[in-house]
Amino acid sequence: MSEKPTRRRGAALEEAILQAAVDEITESGFGGLTMDRVATRAGTNKNTIYRRWPNRLALGVAAYRRLAEAVRPPDTGTLRGDALELLRGANRHWSSPLGTILRELIAAAGGASELLAQLENRAEAEAAPWLAILERAVARGEAAPEALHPRVATVAIVLLRNEFVVRGVPSAPDEVLVEIVDEVFLPLVRVRSGTAPAP
Prior knowledge:
elongated
């Protein structure tokens, strides 16, 4: 006589639901994510999902966090090279299907700042690689310790996000990325490090 399959509980059940949400959002985007479809795919019911994620947005955010990989800071040897590589990577991300999901989540959350709050530590994760390249720049004498501030570090990525969220571009041209780095990010760091050009 065969045994009945063990009913999933706790972490195993949450993992099944989250994986189902990841599969759904990957196939259909946030717009196609429904609690019914996730429940069917995970082999559970909607009430079970709602006990863990109170609404569709919360589940979508959890699925996005699972999909998004941590950014490893580049090491080109110069602050400009590192900043451009990071910004180009972010541009590829925002232009990708995963970036489309992120833009849909921002719209559903009511704005980028509201979504970052939903993403819990996402703001810190976003700042981490930029702080890392600034720390190396400080060690090389390209920037002063005063530049090691999350708001300074993330200026470039915030300006790029505005290109997608405010301007609605599908991808930022490379000249825009160069302009953000050369005309805003590097001068900001250099002003803070006391190397502003003479008048």
